[in-house]
Amino acid sequence: MGSISGLKGRHLLWLVDYSREEILHIVALGLELKRRYYSGEKEIPLLKGRSIALIFEKPSTRTRVSLEVGIRQLGGHPLYLSWNELQLGRGETIADTSRVLSRYVDAIVARVKKHSTLVELARHSRVPVINGLSDRVHPLQALGDMMTIYEKKGRLEGVKLAFVGDGSDNVLNSLIIAGAKLGLHITVGSPPELRPDPEILSYALRESKETGAKIEFVEDPFEAVAGADIVYTDVWVSMGQETIAEKKKKLLKKYQVNEELMEKADSKALFMHCLPAMRGEEVTDEVIDSPRSIVWDQAENRLHIQKAVLSLIIP
After folding, report:
1. Known catalytic residue: 135?
2. Higher pLDDT, 88 or 292
3. Which CATH class is domain 140-298?
4. Which fold has domain 4-137+302-313?
């Protein structure tokens, strides 16, 4: 893993490739850029003259808007490219697309159905490739979440985060990696049929031995949230899982985050959700709209953390 000074030109496919120090550096810059934003510095030309391709195979609200706005605030030029607008939609190979685009732009951010697509893009690219979401991980979300937790709790090490719901969730995979590196205590409340990517879990457990992080799984959601500082959930059915939607909803019915569940967490516990939320399924209106909910701050912080990532990585 490279040093903090060696972030320029790096791909960001998942957080396994980044050290604890590098992640903390990104979080610190995200907080600094947010502070400067609210002090009136909404435009900081850290990416002046740079062009960034935004390839979206899957639809998005937060990722697309926060990236386009953030790039412009940094003085760069975002180029939104939907999958079917590219020759990819007509059969051009990922490798050829990457070879061409990386001669035009200074970085590529891609939101894709399969993580292997990102790996192929990065293999043939001259410029940094950044994961805007894949079926395996969502590193930009996890970085924004670490920034949000630090902002609200004043620390990361030792923070107790309970994730309730789908234990195979791509956001959870990234939270586990980040948490293992930064010393969080993560308890996942999920059915035994739903567990994280085995490679990611194995990596995180090894990393935890060095950092003092804790990662555990329980079946009872009330046991999972007991004493938690953060209660986190995500949608039960992700894009592309429509054929197994009813099966997953039956498995996860008792994992809804509601007021009864939140009462078992710490009295100062906060609620997080990466959004979009399917209200009435994984979370109730009473929780997501309550004073304990920080989901809107969490969503905003995607803007600031992505500006930090782009300014640190793009040469």
Report:
1. no
2. 292
3. alpha beta
4. Rossmann fold (3.40.50)
